[in-house]
Amino acid sequence: MKNIQQLMKMGEQLQARVQELHDRLNAEELEASAGGGMVTARVTGKGDLKSLSIDPEVIDPEDPEMLEDLVVAAVAEAQNRAQTFAEERMGGAGGLPMQLPGLF
Fold first, then answer.
1. 89 contacts 45 by C-beta, under 8 angstroms
2. Is residue 6 exposed (0-12), middle (13-18) or buried (19+ Cβ within 10 Å)?
3. Residue 67 pLDDT > 60, yes or no?
4. pTM recorded for the entire structure
5. How far is C-alpha 49 from the chain's CA centre?
6. Distance of alpha carbon 44 from alpha carbon 29, whole angstroms
7. 35 and 70 Cβ atoms separated by less than 8 Å
8. Is 93 a residue whose pLDDT tops 80?
9. Nearest Cα to Cα of residue 92 among 10, 1, 25, 3
10. Strands lying side by side in the sheet with 49-54
11. Mean of the per-residue pLDDT values of the chain
12. Residue 104 above 70 pLDDT?
């Protein structure tokens, strides 16, 4: 019975640490740019897109594909940075598994 209580307590502690990490990742914001800063994407530490900034000079009605490519590149890089950031935080979280399925 004592082992079960210890196991339950450890589970509660792990759950609290996971929630704290989850909250910190949601609060953190990272950004990346493409096209020499013409397009900038800002994401949460979990990789959710928060904002997108586009310099009006890059908007060319004759070449929408260029703008599309810059947007995709900026968002992808920001999400890659968020992934790296999250992995670093989870690795330093004192024994949390590197990936918790369905959580991040």
1. yes
2. exposed
3. yes
4. 0.71
5. 9
6. 4
7. yes
8. no
9. 25
10. 29-34, 39-44, 49-54
11. 85
12. no
